Amino acid sequence: VIELGMPTKSVTTTCAYCGVGCGFKAEVKGTEVIRMTPWKDGKANEGHSCVKGRFAWGYATHKDRVTKPMIRARITDPWREVSWDEAIGHAASEFKRLQAAFGTNSIGGITSSRCTNEETYLVQKLVRAAFGNNNVDTCARVCHSPTGYGLGQTYGTSAGTQTFKSVAKADVIMVIGANPSEAHPVFASRMKRRLRQGARLIVVDPRRIDLVAGAHVKADFHLQLRPGTNVAVVTSLAHVIVTEGLDDAAYVAERCDDKSVQQWREFVARPENSPEAFERETGVPAALVRGAARLYASGSANGTAQSLADAMAAGGKRPNGAIYYGLGVTEHSQGSTAVMAIANLAMVTGNVGREGVGVNPLRGQNNVQGSCDMGSFPHELPGYRHIGGAEVRAQFDQAWGVTLQPEPGLRIPNMFDAALAGEFKGLYCQGEDIVQSDPDTQHVSSALQAMECVVVQDIFLNETAKYAHVFLPGSSFLEKDGTFTNAERRISRVRKVMPPLSGVGDWEATVKLSNALGYPMAYTHPEQIMQEIAALTPTFAGVSYEKIDRLGSVQWPCNDSTAEAGTDIMHVDRFVRGKGRFVITQYVATDEKVTRKFPLLLTTGRILSQYNVGAQTRRTFNSQWHDEDRLEIHPQDALDRGVKDGDWVGITSRAGETVLRATLTERVQPGVVYTTFHFPESGANVITTDSSDWATNCPEYKVTAVQVMPVAQP
Ligand code: SF4
User: Fold this and answer.
1) First-to-final CA distance of the chain
2) Is the residue at 30 inside a domain?
3) Are residues 640 and 534 in the same domain?
4) Which of 40, 50, 490 to mutate to test the pocket of ligand 1 (most atoms within 8 A of CB)?
5) Which of these, 165, 170, 369, 429, could form a disulfide with 485 (CB 3.0-4.6 Å)?
6) Dihedral through CA 634, CA 640, CA 646, CA 652, nearest 10?
7) Which one-letter DSSP state was computed for residue 78?
8) Are residues 135 and 169 in the same domain?
9) Which of 555, 589, 609 is the C-terminal boundary of a domain?
10) How many angstroms does the Cα of residue 147 sit away from the middle of ligand 1?
11) Which ligand 1 atom sits nearest the alpha carbon of residue 16?
């Protein structure tokens, strides 16, 4: 029993974990946070929370917090605590030295989806204006960069089309490569409420997740595909819809680009794109794909063009079909193709532009949407405007008093490659543990060791800090003023509950570094940064702290002349790009093949009580519910290998090996194994390979060919 007492102060802020972005009241007694209670007026959560957010305050004052800046000449030297001025001065002089010796493009920065919009905006500004290059990237590279590319190509902007509450109007819900019950629990509750009211459910996932047959919901269809075959399954769903006449021809004619429609229809109708043709590859019985396609398009698993026409003639309407997807879609070699296949599917059925429908990426980190919005990609300025555009560049040149480079900079994996080639020498990494979160750990650590100045800014001495020369103590969300943007484009305030433990906020550290590099920044509060963002970013033009404080939150696009309170549903009368564009989504099998040596496919996911790499949740009460990553293996595969429940097993891939305890379960199909990645010692990313999405380099975390064999307890 923990005696908490009565709070003396309550501060409304936003959860620092997942992309649902729940509002909370942080309750303070004296100088200590004693609990967090869900904010009943929070539009993302309506007074609900999950077990992660409830106890999030625990890590903020954990004993492992580092509160003093530190430097060292070599990564084998011990750390030396120094003043902020000395640490910043050392980083700046090293960055200047490296640029003088190796060129302007020899350094770069990485922004974090755990930091605020204002902090992220400042880091990309630092890179572009003070470093003088576009070598800025974000941790979204390894999660939702294919969403940015795929939705940009088809609809014209990189964001979910709906507000969360829209799910209450859905008739058919399709969940692809996402496990909201574990990863987005508060949104999952809303979805389940709608399912209990009678909405129908299709789950596309290699694993039998809770939604397939949980305590309160049951899917109509579970398309239990082999990992890596999303594009084949979604394209074959479209094949059924087009060839059986279940498409919404009137919507497509009015809203979509004619030429792309014709080419795409011809493509998906080919026999090689039928469920029967793909059955062997995907492992999903064709009859299930046909039933799911009919259900999504017509509202009935037995729907036909005639039954749909009869229903419409009788005054009925097409069902509202809503798609929700997660990293099980994006983290593949065809991640961007899969996002576009999903976008095609929604367009051809008229399921974009009203309540109850849409295409909705469920974002992993609290501010992954915001970090992408803020210009964290090497090819885009804030608001997803390409750096090559002379007009937009001129706007920033004038505002920032610089001349921006027109060529895109390096993506994170390109930074690693350039480092190993001796061309990339310095990195500023804010709030991101790339050694633990990026694939092929050995490759990442080798690249960091090849650099001469690595500056890590984080709240804990994380795995990446092992390769750092400068450590800047970061701030937790309780020590910040700013904003986060959730998966429904909702911008909410993050309010300071306590001063930064290190005495310097994350945004202030970036300002100090910029000043030391000779590019002065004069902000005295994050609100001024948001004012600059609003002035330079059309989708944020109507965003201000005053408005967010008054309304609780706003959703971008937010513009005082057209959408004063923001926009809950996008693409209502027209797509952002004008006409919706269909893209050919040719299925290409992953290079990550099973062989006799590596006969199983490993895929990964999350559990309810832990968040991402666990750096935060492992330091809260949540550690009592789950303290290790385990390997789920089908009983038949286990029997074949002499593995019993709870045994230690070695997992070997082409990239490396690790050891976990086994859990025997029929949640996974034979030939597929599964693990979570919340604990560094499990080494999940030691065994993932460096293959990645063809368009964005998002790593193919979800498919790794492995062998599993019993081993002695390590
Ligand atoms: Fe809400 Fe996500 Fe935080 Fe849970 S982790 S409280 S669902 S924002």
Assistant:
1) 35
2) no
3) no
4) 50
5) 369
6) -90
7) P
8) no
9) 555
10) 21
11) 3
> Ligand 1 atom closest to Cα of 38?
6
Looking at ligand 1, which residue's alpha carbon is closest to its atom 2?
18
For a substitution probing ligand 1, which of 15, 366, 369 has the most ligand atoms within 8 Å of its CB? 15
Together in a domain, 211 and 279 = yes
Q: What is the arithmetic mean of pLDDT over 311-316?
A: 91
Domain count, the chain: 3
Q: How far is the CA of 183 from the centre of ligand 1 (A)?
A: 8
| CATH code, domain with 101 | 3.40.50.740
In this structure, the residue with its CA closest to atom 3 of ligand 1 is 53
Closest CA to 166 of 569, 554, 557: 569
152 and 128: one domain? no
The two structure tokens encoding residue 335: 């991640």
Q: Please write the tens of the pLDDT for every residue from 351-408.
A: 999 999 999 999 878 898 999 999 999 999 999 999 999 999 999 999 999 999 999 9
Q: Are 39 and 50 in contact (CB under 8 A)?
A: no
Query: How remote is the CA of residue 351 from the centroid of ligand 1, in Å?
Result: 27
Please give the number of the atom of ligand 1 that sits closest to the Cα of 45.
1
Say whether both 396 and 306 belong to one domain: no
End position of a domain, from candidates 361, 391, 408: 361
Cβ–Cβ contacts within 10 Å for residue 536, how many?
Answer: 22
* Atom of ligand 1 at shortest range from CA of 17: 5
Whether 64 is covered by a domain: the verdict is no
Phi, psi of 253 (to 5 degrees): -65, -40
pLDDT band at 3 (very low <50, low <70, confident <90, very high): low
Ligand 1 atom 6: residue of nearest CA:
53
Is residue 561 exposed (0-12), middle (13-18) or buried (19+ Cβ within 10 Å)?
A: exposed
* CATH number, domain with residue 646: 2.40.40.20
Question: Is it the case that residue 688 has pLDDT exceeding 90?
Answer: no
CATH number at residue 278: 3.40.228.10
Within 6 A (CB) of ligand 1 lie 15, 17-18, 20-22, 45, 49-50, 52-53, 184-186
- Give residue 185 CA to ligand 1 midpoint distance, Å: 7
Confidence of residue 34 (pLDDT cuts 50, 70, 90): confident
**Mutation test of ligand 1: which of 14, 49, 113, 365 has the most ligand atoms closer than 8 Å to its C-beta?**
49
How confident is the model over 515-536, as pLDDT tens digits? 999 999 999 999 999 999 999 9
Nearest Cα residue to 298 out of 383, 202, 378, 196: 202
- The edge-to-edge listing of strands for the beta sheet with 9-14 is 9-14, 23-29, 32-38
Reported as a single tens digit per residue, the pLDDT across 141-156 is 777 789 989 999 999 9
**Residue 366 Cα to ligand 1 middle (Å):** 8
- Are 150 and 128 within one domain? no
How far is Cα 98 from Cα 426, in angstroms, rounded to an integer? 7
**Whether 547 and 690 share a structural domain:** no
Q: What is the pLDDT of residue 110?
A: 96
The Cα 344–Cα 151 span in angstroms is: 10
CA 44 – ligand 1 centroid, Å: 10
Residue 86 pLDDT more than 90?
Answer: yes
Of 70-74, 222-226, 260-264, 654-658, least confident by mean pLDDT is 654-658
Higher pLDDT, residue 82 or 434: 82
> What is the tens place of the pLDDT at every residue in 96-152?
999 999 999 999 999 998 899 999 999 999 999 999 999 999 877 777 789 989 999
Residue 90, CB-side half-sphere exposure with 13 Å CA sphere: 22
- Is 5 inside a domain boundary? no
Q: Which residues of 120-133 are buried (b: 16+ CB within 10 A; e: fewer)?
A: bbbbbbbbbbbbbb
677 band by pLDDT with thresholds 50, 70 and 90:
confident
pLDDT at 482: 97
Asked if residue 617 belongs to a domain, the reply is yes
Segment (H or E) for 70: strand 70-71
Q: Quick one: 318 and 395 in the same domain?
A: no
Q: Give the pLDDT band (50/70/90) at residue 1.
A: very low
Q: How far is the CA of 477 from the centre of ligand 1 (A)?
A: 14
